[in-house]
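Hey,

The postdoc asked me to send both predictions to you directly instead of through the lab channel. I've kept everything plain text so nothing gets mangled by the mail client. Protein one:
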Amino acid sequence: MRRKAGLVLLALAVFFAALSPLVRWYAFPRLAKIPPNQYQDMVLEAKGATLLDYGTMKARKVSEVTIVQTLKGNVEASRKVERTAGRDVVVWDGLSYVRGPDGKTVSEIPERYIFDAHSQEPVHATGEMVDGDPVRRDGIEFKWPFLTEKRDYEYFDAQTRTTSPIHYQGTRNFRGLPVYLFEQTVPWTKVRFPKSLPVEGITPESVAKTGTTRWYTTVRKFLVEPVTGAPVYGEEIHKEELRGGTLLGGRDRVTAFAGHVKMREDYIAHTVSLVKHNRTVVLLLTSHLPWGFLSLGVLLLALSLCLEARGRRPEEPARADASEPEPVGA
């Protein structure tokens, strides 16, 4: 009976020991994915910002500028890309728009971001664009990969349509979460005018005829929860200028926008709560279950060997009855 129980325990030990790496290296890449229909939005604010009044073409201080960013999963588009990509793909249709203190839209820039559902690596396909212009992303945008590492990453900047490193700056604690700080500086760069401008009748083409150009620089920072790869906080020191041309009436340059843009408090609280939940799920697949199964396998193996050893132990010989009289010799 002990022999049979030992064999059963041995079989279970082998099963759980084999299950441990399967959960980590097989199940995790297939289960930890961004859903194709995900929708999320984020609101950032710049208090006491400088904003260009396109009516007078003069910069003025305003109480607040709001930047709203939405990301909507396009399921139909992702299925089309998956047919040729041969892997799970997410297509995000994004929209970033700036609102002045009066609530009116100052500018808006749509995007389409196509990426691998698990690794977050860009997937190049028809439709990848920024503000209607085709682009080819060579770095991440919006989200870091699962199990983010302590290293620099390539990050795509939508304004310049270029990719440059975003640098790992150390580990912090943010609202009870261990996070990584990443920082990227984009130097002054000539960029395109948004195709949607706040003054009716003014288009990027008409502005180009005046010889006026648009320039941009920013210092962006993200706090990224490394298990999920999700940013829980972001901010930018953002500056835009119009330079040269007849549109400025002889001035060399004028500030179009300048402000310290920060994630709004209610969105920080919501994001941290969501990331804490998702972090538990990812840790279950990458740490808790693999190590738990491995520990259980070792324990079952030890019990199996113990039963086997007891089953092989020789039985003690029966002792002679001390009260039985010895035979009398003839």
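Protein two:
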Amino acid sequence: MRRITRIATVGVASAALALSATACGGKKSSDTASDNKEASVALAYDVGGRGDQSFNDAAYAGLQLAEKDLKVKGAEAEPTDGEGEADKVQRLTELARKGNNPVIGVGFAYAPAIKKVAPKFPNTTFGIIDDTSVTDKNVANLVFNEEQGSYLAGVAAAKVSKTGTVGFIGGVEVPLIKKFEAGFVQGVKDTNPNAKVLTQYLTQPPNFDGFSKPDLGKATAQGQLDGGADVVYAAAGLAGTGAIEATAAKGKWAIGVDSDQYNQAGLSKYKDHILTSVTKQVSQSVFNLIKSVQDGKPQTGEIRYGLDKDGVGLADSNPEYKKMTDVIAAVEKAKADIIAKKITVKTAP
């Protein structure tokens, strides 16, 4: 199996890191500190890797900001095709051995690996995005109220739909993505009780191709569009870009996820059909964790980002969306009601 790990770093120590991260065997020395005086931090990407125009790219944006504002050196490690837990353990171990601090696992799939690796490096802070199952004194759980942002997307979808049918595409049927589904469906139904929501997941665990295969998202979106949907919301990482492509080709509305996908360069040809995106401040969570370590007060435990702190939200970059004053008014009212706890958003369908 071809290994596609890549490391993007700066300097001599980073070159050494690249070699160790792509090695398929043999363990390095147990050194826990780098010879470099310059602070270094690391991201280990989720399925789909950097360039997914969504989740991983949002984490990368946080790393970029830290490099610029905090003058740290960033290391990036990509996943491999069909990798197992041992690959993640090796990746995190090598990143920690090279003195990176913090080491951040982008996505819940890193939970078992961080549980194994974090105790071996007690002076290194490990961050994990979208997971609260791993707890340790040097682990920070960066989590979000995805269901709240998705509720707002449901309100918008119901308001703009002309057919009364909208679609939800989940990458892999896991509890995290079911939060997106639950919020979206609730937002649609609270806005238009007669609306129909077509829901489909691309893959079932342990098959995580639903986060990495655009063709899967494209085919599923085409099916939903053929079924009458005129708004399609995909929470599927890189696979979601295929859904956006299919929706744009039909001249219908797509709703992006995690990053503001209207502004993603890789999706520029489809941007006119990206109504809005459910955003998660993954970039800010990465930056905040890095800064906390640099300040000598590393974050630990659950760090939650909700609608009340603009940790999740709905993007308004598309000028056409900004013209929809009735839609915006409905979304803003829903947002206020959620923050005021007048609306409780479900976390499961």
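Summary for protein two, as requested: Confidence is low (pLDDT under 50) at residues 1-36.

Thanks,
C.
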